[in-house]
Amino acid sequence: SFLFRLFPLREHGMNWRAKPLTCQEIQAFRKSKEVMDRFIRAYKLMLGFYGINLVNEETGELERAENWRERFENLNRFSHNNLRITRILKCLGEMGYEDYQVHLVKFFLTETLVKETLPNVKRSALDYFLFTVRSKEKRRELIHYAWQHFKPQSSFVWGPRDKLQKYR
């Protein structure tokens, strides 16, 4: 599939014919400026499809695109997009873009929990997107952020309440 070629992983996806990446292939990709430039172009293309702009290539900072309303409507209507976003997030981690992962997950947590624009993405953001983040520390920060904005807080099951309350 189109997405497999743009965002390959070390695991099997929905396309049974697609071969998972090897660690050697990932290392070769990461060393190639041309491959990594293409990867970022593909990432920006997919973000655009979802109504998101990459504001800063150094940090991975994101914002809503001008057409975000119609694109978010698409995201809310078609849940298969959530699988694609999970794949993109995992691939960002494989390719060494862990900061990009954090920004994309936080973007979706903000849109689902704070701005409440993507109600049908909320479960995927909490159940899957969050746990693609490779950095344990950043993942903890994101879980705490999600807990702070989740309603009702007493129903939050993605982290231990006692630790979330003490988290600094």
Describe this structure in words.
This protein is mostly helical. It has one domain. 61% of the residues lie in helices and 4% in strands. The protein is built from nine helices and two strands, in the order H-H-H-E-E-H-H-H-H-H-H. The chain has a two-stranded antiparallel ribbon with strand order 1-2. Helix 5 (80-94) packs antiparallel against helix 6 (98-114), helix 6 (98-114) packs antiparallel against helix 7 (122-129) and helix 6 packs parallel to helix 8. The longest helix has 18 residues, at 33-50. The radius of gyration is 16 Å and the shape is globular.
In terms of per-residue confidence, which ranges show pLDDT below 50 for 5 or more consecutive residues? none
Largest β sheet strand count, sense and barrel closure: 2 strands, antiparallel
Terminus-to-terminus distance: 43 Å
Helix content, binned percent: 55-70%
Spatial strand arrangement across the major sheet: 1-2
User: Rg, please?
Assistant: 16 Å
Number of helical segments with 4 or more residues: 9
Summarize the structure.
This is OGFR factor. The protein is mainly alpha-helical.
Q: Which features does this protein show?
A:
two-stranded antiparallel ribbon, OGF_rcpt, OGFr, 61% helix, 168 residues, globular, mainly alpha, OGFR factor, opioid growth factor receptor activity, single chain
